[in-house]
Amino acid sequence: MHSDLLLDAVRAEAAYRAEELRKAGRSAWAARARRAVRHVRAARSTVDVPAQERREASRATAGAGETAR
Predict the structure, then answer these.
(1) pLDDT digits (tens, 9 = 90+) for 1-59
(2) Where is the region Disordered (predicted)?
(3) What is the DSSP string of the chain?
């Protein structure tokens, strides 16, 4: 009777560990797949943006050259 309980416990532990290993394998595979998809999407969605040109100030700010009297 004691050996039956021990055998059941060992089988339960083995099943638990096997399931955890399967989950870990699936999550590792899914992570690699997500990384690959992100890389493909990033490469496909790049857009050429023209360089921004610096604009000169078109008007002087009010009172910038005057001194307070």
Answers:
(1) 578 888 899 999 999 999 998 888 888 888 888 888 888 888 777 777 788 887 776 66
(2) 43-69
(3) -HHHHHHHHHHHHHHHHHHHHHHHHHHHHHHHHHHHHHHHHHHHT----PPPPPPPPSSPPTTSSPPP-
| Confidence at residue 69, expressed as pLDDT on a 0 to 100 scale | 54
Which tokens in the block code for residue 18?
Answer: 């096997």
Give the whole-angstrom CA distance, residue 65 versus residue 38: 54
Task: Name the one residue in this structure whose structure tokens are 């009297």.
Answer: 69
Scanning the structure block, which residue is given the tokens 């999550």? 27
Measured CA to CA, the distance from residue 13 to residue 42 in angstroms comes to 43
pTM of the model: 0.41
